[in-house]
Design goal:
Rossmann fold, 2 domains, alpha/beta, 10-stranded mixed β-sheet
Length: 292
């Protein structure tokens, strides 16, 4: 994703989706991307229209009301912003619309107006994450003036993480943001003293050196500051979020290891946990291999 040319932002008029819109609007402003603000009226009108002959006219009024509500949220004077209202299953329509427009990015809230946040995420966000063929940003924060100055890319030193890093190079260049490439050394103890003793040992030093050497800077990252960071902890997702909080991270870009349509704890346990507890927007990136 060298450049972002088109963004889809589902807006169900919940507060969560309105906050996600502000993130999407910032990204559109900074990249010059078209922003498609999409509202999906849930399916079911076909059945009721056979019972209520005037339902079509009623639905037309509802759509007009929804359009007015959307216009009260978005910048209607911005030529890059387009309002779209469809009907159907929300997650299916979101994905079909993204594919139809060949959009580079989906930006959405974690919880919709009709969902209670359950074990993973709101039902629509969960399904979009599992099935979309482009990066998806899930936002939980409430930012009045959102800007990206620091991007965190957690890496487990796999090709999936390398791909996630490549996907944000262009965005970092556009926003003049630094990238912190973070690898968490998984030390299986809560005893801080034992962790320090291990890291001072020859085995610990060797592990740290190998990790640093394996943290590669991709081609095409000239003029982008990439800081290689090692952290030590017992639980990787918690360390990632702790680092994000302590270092004022504005965006986390994390690789998914889950294939399209397969839950597998949503996207892989680390990505799943980070999405659920991160204080800032999280971009989930899928390697093309996951679509084979």
């Amino acid at each position: 994703m060298d450049t972002i040319k088109s963004i889809v932002c589902p807006l169900d008029l919940s507060e969560s989706s309105k906050r996600a819109y502000r993130v999407a609007k910032y990204l559109s402003d900074i990249t010059g991307a078209e922003l498609w603000v999409l509202h999906v009226i849930p399916e079911g009108t076909e059945f009721y229209s056979s019972i209520y002959p005037n339902l079509s006219a009623l639905m037309g009024g509802i759509q007009e009301h929804i359009e007015e509500k959307i216009d009260a949220v978005i910048d209607t004077k911005d030529p890059l912003i387009h309002r779209v209202v469809l009907s159907g299953k929300p997650y299916e329509e979101i994905i079909k619309f993204q594919e139809h427009k060949d959009a580079d990015l989906i930006v959405m809230g974690a919880k919709g107006i009709s969902t209670i946040e359950a074990v993973l995420l709101g039902n629509t966000a969960d399904r979009v994450l599992r099935n979309a063929n482009c990066p998806v940003i899930i936002n939980r924060g409430d930012f009045k003036d959102y800007k990206i100055k620091k991007i965190l890319v957690p890496t487990n030193l796999s090709e999936f993480s390398e791909y996630a890093l490549k996907q944000v190079i262009g965005l970092a260049r556009k926003t003049a943001a630094e990238i912190d490439l973070l690898h968490v050394l998984d030390i299986h103890t809560y005893d801080a003293g034992k962790v320090e003793d291990f890291m001072k040992s020859e085995k610990g030093k060797s592990l740290e050196t190998k990790a640093r050497n394996a943290m590669k800077t991709p081609e095409g990252s000239e003029n982008v500051t990439i800081n290689k960071v090692l952290a030590r902890g017992f639980e990787t997702a918690s360390e990632i979020v702790h680092y994000a909080v302590e270092n004022n991270v504005d965006l986390i870009a994390i690789a998914s290891h889950g294939r399209k349509g397969i839950s597998k704890l949503l996207l892989g346990s680390v990505a799943d946990k980070v999405i659920r507890i991160a204080p800032c927007p999280v971009m989930v990136v899928k390697h093309p291999k996951l679509f084979d």
